[in-house]
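Next comes this protein.

***
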Amino acid sequence: MDQEETVSCAAGDTGYWVSFVTQYFMRMWNRKKEFAGLILIGLLAFPLAGCGPASGTGRSESGEDASPAQVPVTMLYSIDLTDFEKLVEDTYPDIDLQVECNARATIDGESERRLRTGHGSDIITTTMPTGDVKGYAMDLSAQEFASAYQAGISQSLLIGGKTMFLPLPGQYSGYIYNVTLAGQAGVTEPPSSTGGLLAMMDAAAARGLGLGSDGVMFAVESTDMTNLSSYFIGTQVPDLLGRAGGVIWRERLTKRQDTFRSGMAHCLNLSAAMVEKGYLDPAHLYNNRGNMTPVQDRMLNGTLLLTYGTVHFLDTLNAGSDQYEFAMLPFLSEESSHPWTIAAPAAYLGLNAALDEPGREVVLDAAQRVLSLLSTPEGQAAFIRDMGASQSYLAADVPVSGEIPEGLADCIAEGYVYNVQFPAKLLQYFGRSMVSVLNGEASMEEALESVDHYFLTGDADIEYDQTLIGVAAGDMIYENYNVRREETTIGNLVADAIREMTGADMAFANGGSIRGSLYEGNVFGSDLDVICPYDNTIVLLEVKGSVVREMLSNGLTRLIQENGIPGGRFLNVSGVCYTYRAPEGDRPAELLDITLPDGSPFDESRTYTIAVTSYMCGAAGYLDNNGDGFTMLNVYSDTAPLAEGVTLAEETGKTFGDALQFYFQAHNGEAILAQLEGRIKVVTGDD
């Protein structure tokens, strides 16, 4: 179909129009409910028994021209695309581009979970083009617009030799520092080396400037793992990657003829020096996302001297402060090399492979035209205005709005711009490995050896760590041993996952088996491993209700210990509710009541199927507090009496982590968020 053609169909093709009307109305209902009714009336009024001429216009009974029907094309993005949406609809009046806003942190997860359930957007948005979402994207290699982009970025995006995603405009990145505070510390000229950068921080710290009560002076604007990787790699550009030796290393690495160990051994030199001085807290880089340094607030209130971020973030800071001036620095050399900036696309767009199915030709044509328009200087310029971006990846020149920061101007003018071109999953794993080094969890040699192993072999366990499992709709927090004394959302999630996977009447998760939080946004395999790191397996038991009472009572026996840490035997539950009186003084905790979730009475004489961990059933014995004292469940240990009234029904071989993975996959059409439901009630005193 020619790009300027509008929709036409043969007279009498009523099935096509009924399908089109239905699909269109549902899209409009989801996005513009107030307008949908009018659209439906208008579309139904369109003569289904025959369509107008090929131009797309028809005649009303009065003989006047009727407006052509618009084809809806859907996509997700993190902000409103006002300029680009207007450009599309002005250029193609028959297209209604519908952009649904979704937080950048969940773009990948939201896109994939909709695609998995057959409800994906027509235009796919992703920040990880080599991630799992690629399995739903259409091959764009034969499209003329796919050749409009710079050869370097196009080659780096090939998947199996095919073009499946197009790069959106991107941002230049570098260091952003508080010029005002640096001046007060006696640093009046921008640092020109990494040594000078540390010297500036030392001077400010000596005067108590640009740091908070935690002593931190540097943080990264976005702790997305791909962004962290880009930062660590960027530190190596001036003295390695931007020089001839680095180019050769990168080419050899691509051919599997070299290793990360030989190229990235020094990429943490500066970060490690900051950690040693207390200027950077690595614990807040990723794993403790709920406690991340609030970079923007601290930059604006003067309690953070330096950050790594984008030109857009620099503009945001300068617009948000009358007290401080902020400026940008490129990546600096440890030796005497020219400084560099780095750049990366903000995201990538592709076409939903489902558009190639019979009956969707009209939407496919419209979506292709949208990407074709994106691939022109006009389309890029509109996207740049919407995003506040600073670079286009088109081969043609594109006008960029806004000014390039003085600190980066020379780099950009002279071509000292490095585009990070590693596969997305490899970047994720590299970044995670470097954070583990900074946190003291691994040596640099061990971490790089692990990265090389993944790069060269595609290790299945590591691949799982990087695999997108699902999306969390909100934070589910483990903190201050809360899963060992009260109902929590993370405890409810784990217990529900166990119960759903096993089909048990009730499920119990001892608090000591839950060790991490789940935060809003994308959920990867490694996140589930942090929550439930142990490999104890789940077993199904048939027990009397009286045994459940014994279990719950035992779970309350170590709520207060000499070290002040609650014992790990406290039970998080699904399929049952209980109330207990909190311990006070010499009075121990006391189980008061048990009910079923619907409020009906709990029957101690009835047999229930329960899901628990093998650890609780004596798999490790009961000596030295093993098994958390659940001897009433013993079906394994020879050192304690076997439990009475307990039958081993099934050994699942599955862990709590497996149960969480099952739960997210079983609910892959949803963003998951467990709630507090009154499963565990705590009373104090004599209430």
Summary: Residues 14-31 form the longest helix (18 residues). Confidence is low (pLDDT under 50) at residues 1-67.
